[in-house]
Sequence to fold (372 residues):
Amino acid sequence: MNIERIEMRHVSMPLVAPFETSFGVERDRDAIILRLDSEGMVGWGECVAGGWPGYSYETVQTAWHILKDHLSPLVLGQDVLDVADYRRRIAHLKGHPLAKAGLELALWDLLTRASGQSLMAALGGERDRVAVGVSIGIQPTAAKLVEVVGSFVEAGYPRVKLKIKPGRDVSDVRAVRQAFPDLPLQVDANSAYELSDAEVFEAMDDLGLILIEQPLAEDDLVDHAKLQERLATPICLDESILSTRHARQALEIGACRFINIKPARVGGLSEAVAIHDLCWAQEIPVWCGGMLETGIGRAANLALASLPGFSLPGDISATDRYYHEDIAQPPFVLENGTIKVPKRSGLGVEVAQDVLDRVTVRSKLLEPDGAR
Ligand code: OSB
Ligand code: MG
Fold:
């Protein structure tokens, strides 16, 4: 399809509650929303790069630059045949997976809307609903954490993930475990520790955790393998896995037993499906991670999580866990610990233009002549 124009919007969405991780506190979710116009059709994408390089080196500013100056020129005013064609066009550009994934998502939406297919069907998904959990940020005290966990359990979340950081780890997790002896529970360190901190994880080894997510540095598969040898609890990698090759190598050396797949982190849905396929063939459990996406990115995560290998609940919570008002409609709701996968064509959500306008802090329209 001929990509006639690309609209980029930097949005800043107020979160219902601050979200604290080992890399900082988010109060507003910054992202870039992309709109493609082609032959009377529209495609929406979301780039989840945040306000500062805490989770990834990418930020809204770097992603803005990469999208505007390096990715858009490879598709704007041109006939993009399919997503594979897009991937060939951008293959020579290094890094910046969050930026690449944002534009890839907009193309998936455009192309599947045009063909009348749901994204779920296009990706090979086969479940109408996916099992989900909730990711809970670091709280001021362990007592407050137990209270917050209780409110999410009450709301129906069947699996809880706790963010941890040095100094806020074993005792917090133990307090939650004591209050909820049977709750499916996992932790996420967002790479805040070193191998010399192994005792922290050994101390959590008898708390019945499903997994420990990304305890060590993102570029350190070797020490993850050493840590995994010392633990009964499976290590799951997030930040370390940027490609199918990373996934294969991490599994080969025993750096993890599970993988968290985020389409954004691996450069797009295509690579996410490829990692799923690799793990499925090896019977390695995977689950869909989240980046506090708006309803646009979350619709894509739901479609991805409907593939057969996603055997653990995803970090895909209901809309009201993130935002009072989302830019995508209708909101996602939790029912029996699951969320329904959109069935309509494309992403299966519509963008509320008034809400989008309200949260936009900067926008740019790219057209084949001039505007760039
Ligand atoms: O590490 O999984 C993570 C949110 C932002 C950045 C990184 C992570 C997270 C989450 C939230 O854990 C998952 C969600 O979207 O609910
Ligand atoms: Mg994580």
User: Anything to note?
Assistant: The first helix runs from residue 60 to 71. The chain has a mean pLDDT of 97.
